[in-house]
Amino acid sequence: MSDQQSSFDSVLSEDRVFPPSPDAGASLGGAWIDSMESYRDLHAKSVADPEGFWAAAAEDLDWFSHWDTVLEWNLPDARWFIGGTLNACWNCVDRHVESGHGDEVAIVWEGEPMPGGEPDVRHLTYAEVQDKVIRFAAALKGLGIGKGDIVTIYMGMVPELAIACLACARIGAPHSVIFGGFSSQAIVDRVEDADSRIVITCDGAWRRGLIVPLKDNVDEAARNTDRIEHVVVLKRCENEVQWIDGRDAWWHDLMESGDGPVECPCEPMDSEDMLFLLYTSGSTGKPKGIMHTTGGYMVYTMLTSRYTFNLRPDCDQMYWCTADVGWITGHSYIIYGVMANRVPTLMYEGAPNHPEPDRFWSIVERHKVTQFYTAPTAIRAFMKWGDEHPAKHDLSSLKLLGTVGEPINPEAWMWYHRVIGSQRCPIVDTWWQTETGGHMITPLPAVTPTVPGSCTLPFLGIDAIVCDERGNEVPPNSGGLLAIRTPWPSMLRGVYGDRQRFIDTYFSTVDGMYFAGDSARRDDRGYFWIMGRVDDVINVSGHRLGTMEVESALVSHSSVVEAAVVGMPHEIKGTGIAAFVTLDPSGEPGDELKVALREHVAKEIGAIAKPDMIRFTDALPKTRSGKIMRRLLRDIAAGAESTGDVTTLEDFSVLAKLRDDEE
Ligand code: PRX
User: Fold this and answer.
1) 652 CA distance to ligand 1 centroid (A)?
2) CATH 3.30.300.30 domain locations along the chain
3) Distance separating alpha carbons of residues 217 and 605, to the nearest angstrom
4) 244-299 confidence digits (pLDDT tens)
5) Distance (Å) from CA 204 to ligand 1 centroid
């Protein structure tokens, strides 16, 4: 973090403030809030009277029955819109069809394969999405899946992924989406934790010209757990798959249910019924299932989508978020928040550099993308690939740029602003988390002056603070813990099956508040600057991983006795993974074993968890009480970046003694 911090400081001292761009707002159809004064006024009101503010926001959804009470807050438990019933699928799809917009485009999809040919493109209207969702929802019911049953989804980025999620929402079966880059072991862990009987998958997914064998991974998972009773398979790649009669069913067979319309009405869901589970990494143990419920999540994601991205129906917008639906960003800002606003959402299946590093810009040009939302890690990769790739394309449709997932270094921010946004698009640097459900600290386009590297100010209704452990606010420009003082509608409702972990992780560090796990500081303007995680979670390319998960994966290899994993600075990924490993006498340190260990981690977790650097060591530096001295390892890993991935058998005993009292 220190490098990043110093570059933030140098930008701050230049006082490089970018005034808001009202033109960008105007060309999108107007800004929902149009001045800093109105933001400050509305923010103050929303925090002073959250119930009044959120009740008004909730009126923009369709409710089957109105709520009686807006909020019940017994720390750490929030319940929103109590007594109200609604359906997320109805609000994203059916209500648009009912109100006469069935012919408008809901989802635009572009598949990856392209060399030599035209790109695969599909446009699905709301009416088409509705028809497919109804058919699939009915098919799920036919398989015995109903309200409250958790449905695991492990697919590539195809429209059917959104359709599967919406079908689950329709019948009240919470979905648990697993990122298609995770391994079969990750499927086993999540299926078992959620007690999920069904997995929806694809024969494969295209990624950088190759097929990721998703169905094979599910088959392997099913050999290692007895929970999986049904596997539904979408044919995407003509990839050959093994078949188990009675267990496996083709998506297309299930969708063909004879002549005539299929009936499957939207289930009225209690506002506090679970909409989905999404697993994310923490400091300890296996990834935890974050629970989001229906009413509060829909209200919050709809409002943040609208205000942060200036989403407006009927204004010729084409919104594209490049995240995978396997992450919270895809849930909130590809599917639910965006579709609730009746603005077309673009999904792209593959890699940003396939077949060439200009793929994203060719998509922007061909589909006339107006709002574009991506991660700093992608921006850094584009910078590296060179300005000539965006320069080949007309990017003038772009009106707004967004970033999410990790701190953005000012250099990357400036490049994004200059090369992609032609110095006219506002950039919204949105800070939030799986647990928060939606944007928490973010500029509002056309309103908030931005400073590269700062996510600026809290969203409406959000009472964010940088404080010490007692909850006392720290002075400007001092680092502290980032906490949220009061509840907001889309906050997590718990960790699935682990009440204590919910309390310990989020409500035990700072007295009486939600603790995010990040440190931050506020500048003299009151702007927030995220400094990074304070726990043992690392953010690799905007993907969250627990160091302990990677350590457990390494230790499960027969040659490894002990492992310690820390983050290290990485030019593109932001944070890379450094592993210090002690070996069993049978283990032969060397490049071969390094390759084997990387593959082993990929198999246990997924390719994103492969260590960038592995060092073999005789012992790990520990304090007298036996705690691994992570700070020392972080220093060593940071220093090692320039010297590259050197194999050394290190003896930390001397260093350990010197630093023994530090940790
Ligand atoms: O450390 C923060 C970082 O990502 C963490 C949340 O990760 P995850 O739950 O996977 O959600 C990512 C997508 C919302 C946070 O605790 N983070 C997220 N956005 C930003 C960020 N760090 C700095 N700036 C951001 N804009």
Assistant:
1) 33
2) 541-660
3) 12
4) 999 999 999 999 866 667 899 999 999 999 999 999 998 888 899 999 999 999 99
5) 29
